[in-house]
Write a structure and sequence with these properties.
Layout lengths: L27 H13 L2 H8 L3 H15 L4 E3 L4 E3 L1 H23 L10 E4 L7 H11 L5 E4 L4 H9 L5 E4 L6 H4 L2 E16 L10 E2 L7 E2 L9 H11 L5 E2 L9 H11 L3 E4 L8 E7 L2 E11 L5 H17 L8 E2 L2 H7 L26 H17 L1
Parallel strand pairs: 3-4, 7-11, 8-9, 12-13
Antiparallel strand pairs: 1-2, 5-12, 6-10, 6-11, 6-12
């Protein structure tokens, strides 16, 4: 970074004053690090929110302090508080970052100039693929590219780093600091299932009552750093039912490796009813109660892209037409997830209609143009029925 002509490249910290020399160029990454610490008041939480190492975050903040020749935080072993200079900088930094995000989005708003939208579907064969297919139909001039990150926690890190635009998963399972940098739209309460190795006694049932898993060790991604939100959902479901979360197992990549690991360990695997068929395994829905996996469409806060508008519209359309947000009479959803999804997990709760939203839609509301297509598609579906 170059200092103004005739000024030293660094100065000892001093109170921020109008006469303080300010570099001509400030890296937005440094401002983003500063804002995260100022809002979290904790370096560890701020680092987790940005998906960076704490040492790297501290280094960025110190560099910004050197560049501005001020001390921005008072640090102690227990707390971090902004100095007067830090308090003064915060609203400016927020405005700069907002302008930076708007500048990035300005080239992704219309027509052929829009860059490809990178969408994580979690795994091949899930319902998220149908949402993406429908979105592609709504905006054939845009390129929507599929990715497979196998977990919302892992995908959120890629979104924060700018290597991914959107994903699907359990939003309530992310840390609060991470959620603060994202927006979400509820898409589906997906019924959960159990994947059983061939020959397991429960494969003879058409559906597996949850209490029949008592005494079993069920694999739910324990130890996989990309999917802790799924393991947490399993722990909440298994609590008080005598079901144990299986210990970490080698991460299997591909159907053949998955089948080999399952045949070796013989542990049932917690899944969803839409999970694709795998060799050597039998999928059975869980009942009594019917556990539900709350799935949201998640994207970077402030992102504007015609592909995202179409993705949100497609998700709302399919959810309305197929009752994806309906909670069955005997459905089970953690209370925290029901709050995040915007509706209580009550028996027989109906699917919410496709929202229309204001000109600049709030999270969970598709843009007006896409909403109009959703309403038309829903009417066509009702007519066919």
């Amino acid at each position: 970074m170059t200092a103004p002509e005739g000024q030293p490249t660094s100065q000892p910290p001093s109170p921020l004053a109008p006469s303080s020399p300010v570099p001509r160029d400030i890296d937005p990454r440094l401002l983003r690090s500063f804002v995260a610490v100022a809002e979290e008041l904790h370096f560890t939480r701020a680092a987790a929110r940005l998906y960076v190492a704490q040492q790297a975050l501290s280094r960025d903040v110190r560099r910004l302090e050197r560049d501005l020749a001020v001390e921005l935080f008072v640090r102690s072993t227990r707390r971090v508080t902004p100095t007067a200079a830090g308090e003064r900088l915060l609203p400016y930094a927020r405005r700069v970052l907002a302008a930076h995000d708007e500048l990035s989005a300005a080239f992704a708003r219309t027509g052929q100039s829009a860059r490809p939208l990178l969408v994580d579907l979690n795994s091949p064969g899930l319902f998220s693929g149908r949402v993406l297919d429908r979105a592609r139909e709504l905006v054939p001039h845009c390129e929507l590219m599929a990715r497979f990150e196998s977990g919302l926690t892992g995908a959120a890190g890629e979104i924060a780093a700018g290597r991914l635009d959107a994903s699907f998963g359990r939003f309530a399972g992310l840390p609060a600091g991470v959620r603060a940098g994202l927006e979400q739209q509820p898409v589906r309460y997906e019924p959960m299932a159990v994947l059983l190795p061939v020959g397991h006694p429960l494969t003879g049932l058409d559906a597996v009552p949850l209490d029949r898993l008592a005494g079993e060790r069920v694999y739910a991604g324990a130890g996989n750093e990309r999917t802790p939100e799924w393991t947490d959902l399993a722990r909440r479901l298994f609590e008080g039912r005598g079901i144990e979360v299986a210990p970490p197992a080698p991460l299997a990549v591909g159907p053949e490796e998955f089948a080999r690991i399952m045949a070796k360990h013989r542990n049932p695997v917690l899944a969803v009813v839409g999970f694709p068929e795998l060799p050597g395994a039998v999928l059975r829905p869980l009942v009594d109660p019917v556990p539900l996996s709350p799935v949201s469409l998640v994207w970077r806060r402030g992102l504007r892209h015609p592909g995202l508008d179409a993705l949100r519209g497609a998700a709302a359309e399919l959810a309305a037409a197929e009752g994806w947000l309906t909670v069955p009479v005997d459905g089970w959803v953690p209370e925290a997830d029901a709050r995040v999804m915007g509706s209580a997990a009550t028996p027989g709760a109906g699917a919410r209609p496709a929202p229309t939203g204001p000109p600049h839609p709030e999270p969970g509301h598709p843009p007006p143009a896409v909403a109009e297509r959703v309403r038309n598609a829903t009417l066509r579906t009702a007519t066919r029925r």
